[in-house]
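User: I'm putting together a teaching handout on how sequence relates to shape, and I'd like one worked example. Could you take amidase from Antrihabitans spumae, show the sequence you're using, and then write out its predicted structure as C-alpha cells right after it?

Assistant: Happy to. First the sequence, then the C-alpha cells directly below it.
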Amino acid sequence: MSIEDRNQDLYAAVTIAEDCRSGRADPVDVVRRALENIAERDGEIGAFVAVRTDRALAEAAALADRSGSESLPLYGVPIAVKDNLPVAGEPMLAGSSAGSNVPSGADHEVVARLRAAGAVVVGLTAMPELGAWGVTDRPGVITRNPWNLERTAGGSSGGSAAAVAAGFVPVAQGNDGLGSIRSPAACCGLVGIKPGFGLVPAGIGGNDWYGMAENGPLATTVADAALVLSVMADQPELATIGHPGKLKIGLAVGSPSPIVRVDRHWTAAARTAGGVFASAGHLVQTTVLPYPKNPVGEIARWTASTALDARDLDRTRLQKRSRGHVRLGKAATRLGLVKSAQSDRLDTNLREFFAEFDVVLTPMLAQSPPKAEAFSEKSWLSNMVASIRYAPYAALWNVSGYPAASVPIGIHPVTGTPLAVQIAAAPGREAVILALAAQLEQRRPWARLAPDC
C-alpha cells in the first residue's frame, strides 16, 4: 500500500469530528475503540500513566446527548493530555513520585478549551520527572518509540508522541520548554508545534520555565495540528491553512554548538526539505543562525525552572538526577544567572535575522532517538549529555519565545526512526509555518503511523 493510500485509510481528528457531526460516527464508539486499542497495546509502548476508561465513555455519551454538539470543531475526538496539566478529577504527578495524588479540582484552561470543543480526554501521558529530560521513562516503565521499540519516544512529551504515533489517539497535547513537543514529534514522525509566546495559555509549572514553556499539539497531519492549535489558542482561523505565498527561506544546517556533532542524515533531511520548497517556488538560501555563544544562560534557565517546579515537593522523593538538577538550579537562581538580558539580546539578533528571511529551516534533531533505557536511574551527567547530544536545535526558539514546528521528512536508514525538519519564524507567524508544513506534506507525504501500528 502506498503512503497516500495508507494516509487516507487512517482516522484523522478532522475526519472523526466531521463524521460525528454528520452522524456517520458515534462519539461513544470512537472513544471505546481508542480505549480498547490502548488496553490491548500500550503495555509494550508505555505511553499512558492513567487511562480514564469509565469517565471517558461517560463523557462521550454526555457529549452525544448534548444539543449543539454538531457544531463543535473536535466533536468526539479522543485526545491525550500530558501529565503536567490539571485534568479535573485526576491527580497530576508531572512524572514524579513526589507529586500529589490528590485529584485536580478543575481543568487547565487548555484542557477546558479542548473539552468545550468536543474532545474527550482518554488518558494522561507519560513524561520524565518534572519534564526536565529529553527521554521519557519512570521507575519500571520505559516509554518506547512505536517506530523502533529499542529507541526512546523522546521527551518530555514522550508519552503524548508515542500515543499518537502508535495510533491510540489521533492527536495529543504536549508542552515545550526546551523542545519537549518538537523533539518527541521528530522521534516519532509527527507534526509538533510550539506556538509563540502568548498565543496559547501556558500555566506550566512554577513560572512557565521563565516564559520558555508553551502548550501545543502533536498530530499525524498538518490539518489536525492546525485544528487543535486553533482550539488551544481560541483562534478558529488558524484551522484554515492558506497558501504561504513566495517566501525567502533560510536553510541553516550548522550545529548549534561546537561540541555537538550532527548526523549527516539529519543534515540531508533539512537540505531535502529546502529542495522541496525551492521546487515549490520559494527562494532558499543557506545561512547561519545567531545561536548563543555561551550556553550558561540556557542551562541556568533549564535547571532553575526545575528547581522552581520542585519548590513545594519532598525533594528526598525525587530521582537522583533531578535532585542534582534542582541543586544546580537553586545555585543558578542564587547567583543571578537567569537574566532577561539573555532573551532580549537573542530577540534583537533574531529580529535582524528575520528582517532578511521569512522563515528558517534546520534539522530538528542532531542524532536519532537514544536507546530506550532507564534514564531515570542514570546520573545527572548522563541525562544532560543524552539530551543535549541529540536535541540541541530547539532551545533557541524557547528562549526567544518564537514559534517553531517539527515536520517529518523521511526515515533514518540505520535506526528506522523518522527524520524531521524544523520550521521557525518570527512572532505571530504560526499560520505561515503551518502553510509551509502543509506544502511539505503535500509534496513529500509521510506514513502517519509506525509500520506495525
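A couple of points you could highlight for students: Residues 252 and 289 are 6 Å apart (CA to CA). DSSP finds 16 helices and 15 strands in the chain.
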